[in-house]
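Hey, can you fold this one?
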Amino acid sequence: FSFVRLCYPGPDLEFSMHDGTIRDLAFMEGPESGGAILISAGAGDCNIYTTDCQRGQGLHALSGHTGHILSLYTWGGWMIASGSQDKTVRFWDLRVPSCVRVVGTAFHGSGSPVASVAVDPSGRLLATGQEDSACMLYDIRGGRIVQVYRPHTSDVRSVRFSPGAHYLLTGSYDTKVIVTNLQGDLTKQLPQTVVGEHGDKVIQCRWHTQDLSFLSSSADRTVTLWTHNP
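Sure. Predicted structure:
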């Protein structure tokens, strides 16, 4: 699809600013508009579009990526992280609005497209899931890559920090769901546990907002609720 439709109790709103497949959507509570801002991105012109949901008006077209955008994440009321097939993560600040930092994935070798991104609740640590089966941890405030490791054997399509950021949940096309323990020196080898497995590719994983339980969705046409008992 190359359009966005919002369904409210009132009339539906439809936006057609994209000229290619929309890969990801996210909401941000923005003081700028007095309500929710919709963030959307994907293929085509590789722009990120922001839309005032209450007024039904476009706000910004954020350009900079040179490949399809595969993943979006918002935090802090103003900040956006976007992962792309151009093998970069870009940080955006809607107060500017412009790209404020570019992070490449070429830690060893030529890098890899970024299929998923997430930022921990403190806004200090970025995690990426990449098509080469790697995950990257990046210190946002320090501006440095902390570690690149490979918990999976295929594309990592979903990364999410647990509510307290003690664990990183990852889902992959290798059909596995893995939890990585982040309670320790992040530059050392990180303990990993396979906490679930599907019959086909894992598409998305999401933690419960408070408990150490999570959902995973898969190409095997199931959504599964799991509990993590560390």
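Residues 78 and 95 are 7 Å apart (CA to CA). Let me know if you want another pass with a different chain boundary.
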